[in-house]
């Protein structure tokens, strides 16, 4: 099922187009990951799909409706976004920050209702941050802070959650903690997760669907077995990658790679024992 899609979407800044005539369909109730080199348009695409920035041409459709014509509060009840570098929220407690997720449901003087408080407590519990409710955001570790931001997104009670590089600045353990939480939300609550990741092995491990971007255009999209292959990685990242299977998850895994230079960009240098034939 497809609820969210774009049609011939073009996005840019001034006269410079970053994303060009891009049409895509996001699988519902799945984890979709966008990969690509720096500057290829990953974050720009996320911002346009969530209406943080306008697009020059084309359309973004959610449930068959153009999001540019949707009421802001109505849209905020359907999708939430965690930006790449959230504001530090200095001076706020964890509970106060998470309460901001209830904004789309507030009216009048914006006072929280009993239902609002119940949803806030639920979001804190699901993300394992209940013990931090009255603690200042500034007193938390990076991983704890990221989970609190995810709790705020959950408090919006949206079916769709966007995250722009949610593992940035986190150590390996905290990266895994955040990604496993997102996977849990997807599997147990059917949340549609769309995120940008830099780590190819994390993308392969956690995504049901991967979109590989280059210069604002889709090189290829599909399951990890179709994307994390030498040919696609050569095109997208200009690397000569050796791909094997992750012994724990059986997902494709980038074992090692070299940077392609000059004429080598067009040479076939992949060890045949690690070609896509191993995935059949």
Topology:
Elements: E1 2-13, E2 16-27, E3 31-35, H1 42-49, E4 57-62, E5 65-66, H2 72-76, E6 79-82, H3 94-99, H4 114-126, H5 142-155, E7 160-164, H6 172-189, E8 192-196, H7 200-206, E9 209-214, E10 217-222, H8 224-227, H9 230-237, E11 239-245, E12 252-259
Parallel strand pairs: 3-8, 3-9, 6-7, 7-8
Antiparallel strand pairs: 1-2, 1-4, 4-5, 9-10, 11-12
Helix pairs in contact: 4-5, 5-6
Notes on the protein architecture:
With 280 residues, the protein is of the alpha/beta class. The strands form 3 sheets. A 6-stranded mixed beta sheet has the order 6-7-8-3-9-10, sandwiched between helices. The chain has a 4-stranded antiparallel beta sheet with strand order 2-1-4-5, covered by helices on one side. A two-stranded antiparallel sheet has the order 11-12. Strand 9 and strand 10 form a beta hairpin. Helix 5 runs parallel beside helix 6. The longest helix has 18 residues. The protein is globular and about 60 Å long. The two termini are 26 Å apart. The C terminus is likely disordered.
Quick overview:
With 280 residues, the chain is α/β, with parallel strands linked by helices. The chain contains nine helices and twelve strands. The chain has a six-stranded mixed β-sheet, sandwiched between helices. A four-stranded antiparallel β-sheet has the order 2-1-4-5, covered by helices on one side. It has a two-stranded antiparallel sheet with strand order 11-12.
Q: What integer is the average pLDDT? A: 90
Q: Give the proportion of residues in helices.
A: 25-40%
Element string (H = helix, E = strand): EEEHEEHEHHHEHEHEEHHEE
Structural class: alpha/beta
> How many strands, which pairing sense, and closed or not: the largest β-sheet?
6 strands, mixed
- Uncertain segments are 263-280
Strand order, largest beta sheet: 6-7-8-3-9-10
Number of E-state strands: 12
Residues in β-strands, percent: 25-35%
SS field, number of helical segments: 9
């Amino acid at each position: 099922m497809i609820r969210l899609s774009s049609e011939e979407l073009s996005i840019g800044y001034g006269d410079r187009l970053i994303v060009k005539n891009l049409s895509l369909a996001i699988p519902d109730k799945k984890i979709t990951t966008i990969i690509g080199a720096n500057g290829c348009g990953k974050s720009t695409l996320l911002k346009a799909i969530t209406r943080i920035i306008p697009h020059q041409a084309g359309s973004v459709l959610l449930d068959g409706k153009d999001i540019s014509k949707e009421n802001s509060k109505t849209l905020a009840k359907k999708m939430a976004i965690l930006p790449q570098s959230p504001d530090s929220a200095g001076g706020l407690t964890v509970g106060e920050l998470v309460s901001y997720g209830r904004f789309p449901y507030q009216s009048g003087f914006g006072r929280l209702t009993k239902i609002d408080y119940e949803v806030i407590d639920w979001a804190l519990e699901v993300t394992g941050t209940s013990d931090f409710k009255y603690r200042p955001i500034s007193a938390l570790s990076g991983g704890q802070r990221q989970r609190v931001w995810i709790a705020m997104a959950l408090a919006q009670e949206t079916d769709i959650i966007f995250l722009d590089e949610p593992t940035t600045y986190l150590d390996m353990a905290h990266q895994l903690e955040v990604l496993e939480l997102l996977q849990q939300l997807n599997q147990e609550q059917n949340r549609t997760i769309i995120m940008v990741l830099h780590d190819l092995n994390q993308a392969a491990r956690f995504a049901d669907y991967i979109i590989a971007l280059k210069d604002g255009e889709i090189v290829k999209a599909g399951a990890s077995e179709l994307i994390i292959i030498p040919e696609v990685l050569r095109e997208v990242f200009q690397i000569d990658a050796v791909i094997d299977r992750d012994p724990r998850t059986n997902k494709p895994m980038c074992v090692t790679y070299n940077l392609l230079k000059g004429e080598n960009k067009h040479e076939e240098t992949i060890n045949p024992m690690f070609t896509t034939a191993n995935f059949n």
